[in-house]
């Protein structure tokens, strides 16, 4: 057996993150529903009225979220993505919804969503046009911000297509200022670093100053290879991106595709567990009107959501590779630690993982309480540093645990990680 450990100076995870956009929003990772991965840019409401991008789709999703436990679980935003506008601005230069697909307009849709106790998100683009070719906000930042405020929109997803990359940062800052100028609290979801990474390392201090969360990497697809690529990218860059995350500002690895077609149930559990460990926004893209009970139960799992929404607000990170396993850990409030052990082997049956190989297992000195959340909930009781426990983890599946030490571990944890380097390059033990 070999162990590859990844070290990160935890002092950056214990001390507050860089000052975030101060709009009082996203103090925990955003939760909601977003149309893009599942419904894309389907505007053919004549032949596909149930699945086209129209006010009907969002009203129906809001109905389901209000009636079927989603709102109670914490999912509060119903988010429109690209392809909602008319191809032309109105006579006053304002964006307007496609009149055929949104006959009531966005303000009426916002009122409907609010009547369900939920919030409405909308989409725009920093450039001259959106990724799908609809009018962009370049040259109209203040106009569009005020339009969204007048419509009583609660979240703006701001994409970065069709813009000179050297101007992307300036555009995102200008829209942030324009949103603040409206006086309405609008959560600001950016894609700023995604469009700078091909050219340079983004300035995460500036990004966190302007945005409530930000995309770093490619769009998620409904496949395990896509989810794995996001995890790989995140782990490789975690020394840069993890310190930026905290209350008010989060790294966004993109949507949850749980309840669709491309992931096995074990892989769905892995995505849910790792998004919680990464303190990622939980924005589901599926058809809530027709979702299998197991996927629904996973997305509404209170124990996983508690990790996601933990008040300490620290992003987790990969701490070790052990044979075909990866270990990811996230510090939680009340001296707890959340641990995800992923079996990356896509072959054979369940494999055993020796629990003492988890770097954070040293928290169990002298004793700790261990709870397994995935794949099944199980109170594992009081354990010691020498407990001979093996976890059984399915191929491409994840065991998700929480550890609660019986003594205050904060000082030891800080001292331990202050002594480590921030290399985050693999070291063979």
Account of the 3D structure:
This protein is of the alpha/beta class. It has 15 helices and 18 strands. Helix 3 runs parallel beside helix 5. The protein starts with a strand and ends with a strand. The C terminus is likely disordered.
Mean pLDDT over the residues = 92
Count the beta strands: 18
**Strand order in the largest sheet:** 15-14-17-12-11-10-1-18
Q: Main β-sheet, in a few words?
A: 8 strands, antiparallel
Query: Over all CA atoms, what is the radius of gyration?
Result: 22 Å
Write the SSE topology.
Layout: E1 3-5, H1 11-14, E2 31-34, H2 36-39, H3 55-67, H4 70-73, E3 77-79, H5 105-115, E4 119-125, H6 141-150, E5 155-159, H7 165-182, E6 187-190, H8 192-196, H9 204-210, E7 213-215, H10 224-236, H11 238-241, E8 250-252, H12 265-277, E9 282-284, H13 293-299, H14 302-308, E10 317-322, E11 325-331, E12 337-343, E13 351-354, E14 368-374, E15 378-383, E16 390-393, E17 398-405, H15 410-418, E18 427-428
Quick take:
The chain has helices at residues 11-14, 36-39, 55-67, 70-73, 105-115, 141-150, 165-182, 192-196, 204-210, 224-236, 238-241, 265-277, 293-299, 302-308, 410-418, and strands at 3-5, 31-34, 77-79, 119-125, 155-159, 187-190, 213-215, 250-252, 282-284, 317-322, 325-331, 337-343, 351-354, 368-374, 378-383, 390-393, 398-405, 427-428. It has 429 residues and is of the alpha/beta class.
